[in-house]
Design brief:
Helices cover 48% and strands 14% of the residues. The protein is built from 13 helices and ten strands. It has helices spanning 3-9, 13-16, 33-44, 62-77, 89-96, 100-119, 130-142, 176-185, 202-218, 222-247, 258-262, 266-279, 287-294; strands at residues 25-28, 50-56, 81-86, 123-125, 154-158, 164-168, 256-257, 304-306, 312-316, 319-323. Helix 3 crosses helix 8, helix 10 (222-247) crosses helix 12 and helix 12 (266-279) crosses helix 13 (287-294). The protein is globular and about 65 Å long.
């Protein structure tokens, strides 16, 4: 293993962990520097049953097609299995009234679910890195999230097709420059997405304008600060989950028991309601929505709060319960 690989792998706890390197592992590879670096690092670390998974979102015409061809050639050169599909993100946006980012993410998850079913492995390795984490934390704060909410190193979710995915992000504390330096040192090629440098999308502006400005103003590394904040929030989140379990606010049907909830301090009420909404897959969860939900504790207020995505939180017979919207078939 080249020295450069050894040095970088030594900084990634998951790659140093005692995991089964002989079993299949699915890895999402777009062709960009981050995912290409992750792929080479996996091979260098002894993961030889990797399945390279590439979804062509069909958003950049011929460039998207060339990305898919590049990733296929790379997988072939490394002697790895390759899975690829082409999606229609714009069609999904129109059919589901989803944003571009949400539609693309949901289509990726559905693609991964099909790979999971084919290979009998539900772990998907993703190449999100420190800059991605910092952008996520900052954007969530601006949208009103609770604390430094970032991506998790390991995240379990169930897709709309009913398949459970375990998303693993080994590179969350690794800077993008370190990944690019690794690729250059090893003479590994990758594909550049020119749209990533355009100050149009929110994430691009956070990366190219907001974070550098915060670093300049504070004279400190803003990316590192947000990454540390996300790690600290993980510890706090574990404590909050434990605290919510102690107060036992759910009835046998999984509804919130209002008399019990009313007896709690307001801060604890917020935690309980937020956990309840999160467990019911409510998206765009911010402080304002929590406060609207807490208004249901007062019987003088309306008994229904509308939720993002079309669902409702309802008060009835001393309970809060969820009414989910009917979604169109994918």
């Amino acid at each position: 293993m080249p020295d450069q690989s050894v040095k970088l792998i030594g900084r990634i706890p998951w790659l140093m962990a005692n995991v089964d390197r002989k079993k299949p592992w699915l890895v999402g590879v777009s062709g960009g520097a981050d995912s290409v670096a992750l792929l080479h690092l996996l091979v260098a670390a002894g993961f030889h049953e990797v399945v390279v998974c590439h979804l062509d979102h069909g958003l950049r015409g011929r460039t998207s097609t060339e990305d898919a061809k590049f990733v296929k050639r790379l997988a072939t050169a490394l002697g790895l299995k390759f899975e690829s599909e082409r999606a229609d993100v714009k069609l999904r946006m129109a059919a589901k009234s989803e944003s571009l980012e949400t539609a693309a993410r949901n289509l990726r998850h559905l693609f991964f679910s099909r790979c999971v079913q084919k290979y009998g492995c539900n772990e998907i390795l993703l190449a999100h890195h420190a800059e991605d984490q910092a952008e996520t934390v900052l954007w969530n704060l601006l949208r009103g999230s609770h604390g430094f909410k970032g991506m998790h190193g390991v995240q379990t979710l169930v897709t709309e097709s009913g398949v459970e995915l375990e998303l693993i992000r080994p590179l969350l504390e690794i800077r993008r420059a370190a990944l690019a330096d690794f690729l250059k040192a090893q003479n590994h090629r990758w594909r550049e997405d020119a749209s990533n440098a355009e100050p149009i999308a929110v994430r691009n502006r956070l990366r190219h304008e907001a974070l550098p400005l915060l670093t300049e103003i504070s004279q400190r590394d803003a990316v590192a600060a947000f990454v540390r904040g996300a790690a600290d929030m993980d510890d706090q989140a574990a404590l909050e989950i434990w605290a919510v379990a102690q107060v036992k606010t759910l009835d046998p049907q999984g509804r919130l028991h209002l008399p019990t909830l009313r007896d709690l301090p307001v801060a604890m009420q917020r935690l309980v309601v937020r956990k309840f909404l999160t467990d019911h897959d409510v998206e765009s969860l911010d402080r304002a929505l929590i406060e609207r939900s807490l208004s249901l504790l007062d019987i003088k207020n309306p008994a229904v709060v509308n939720l993002p995505g079309g669902g409702q939180l309802r008060r009835q017979a001393g309970r809060l319960w969820m009414k989910k919207c009917e979604k169109n078939s994918p």
